[in-house]
Design goal:
The protein is mostly helical and 233 residues long. Helices cover 84% and strands 0% of the residues.
């Protein structure tokens, strides 16, 4: 296995491996996907798609390259990009409650490290797990600032990383960020409301599309069925 990985590292561009590694980190701590395994899997499946299309399609020599290219692009999207996007939305939903508790703890006079410990003990979710990992790293000798900076690589949300950046500055310089935290929490809450409103506004359009694709043909079939049957009779 180790030899295969070393060989694959020579085949794939370092920049490509680095890009995939960064995306895998954004999937969170629960992801155990290896960048080399991902690239090998995409390569093997792409070959299988190419061979399959080449032999089952009438114009396989045309369809196979196009189909393989589309599969190659969509594989990364569905395996990484789409999951990262969904995780970003989920984390931002959790962030409001998490940072509210954290800010209240800071406002009560606790230092940042104690405030994080209190928050992760009382709030569940993926974001809480990320901060638990931060505290675990601090326990084993890493500074809080270093652990927070490293955590940013696992967070696919600019809004959350902006707050984490504020926390690192607080840890470094001892400045108070309570007012700034409340402002950022309010911003995230308003952003969340706008996203929900946007999703609600899309519902009538989705219903219209479904109606056109399914219900309208069904109604036409019911109306025209007697005419068709009489004609056939």
């Amino acid at each position: 296995m180790g030899q295969n990985h070393e060989l694959s590292k020579k085949i794939y561009n370092k920049k490509l491996i680095s890009k995939i590694s960064k995306k895998i980190k954004l999937l969170g701590l629960s992801s155990n996907l290896d960048p080399i395994d991902f690239l090998n899997m995409r390569f093997i499946f792409s070959i299988m798609v190419f061979i399959t299309l080449l032999f089952i399609c009438k114009y396989g020599y045309v369809v196979a390259p196009i189909g393989t290219f589309v599969f190659y692009k969509l594989f990364e999207y569905f395996m990484l990009d789409d999951k990262i996007k969904k995780r970003s939305s989920k984390l931002e939903g959790e962030a409001i409650q998490f940072f509210e508790v954290l800010t209240l703890s800071l406002d009560a006079g606790r230092n940042l490290e104690d405030a994080i410990n209190v928050t992760v003990s009382n709030v569940n979710g993926d974001l809480s797990l990320e901060f638990k990992e931060v505290m675990r790293e601090v326990k084993f000798g890493k500074s809080l600032t270093e652990a927070l900076v490293d955590m940013e690589e696992n967070i696919p949300s600019i809004n959350i990383n902006n707050i984490v950046l504020s926390l690192t500055q607080t840890d470094l310089y001892g400045t108070s960020i309570i007012a700034n935290m409340y402002e950022q929490i309010d911003y995230m809450r308003e952003k969340r409301k706008m996203e929900v409103k946007s999703q609600i506004s899309k519902i009538p359009i989705k219903i219209s599309v479904i109606s056109v694709l399914f219900f309208v043909p069904l109604i036409l079939l019911i109306i025209l069925a007697p005419v068709i049957l009489s004609y056939l009779g």
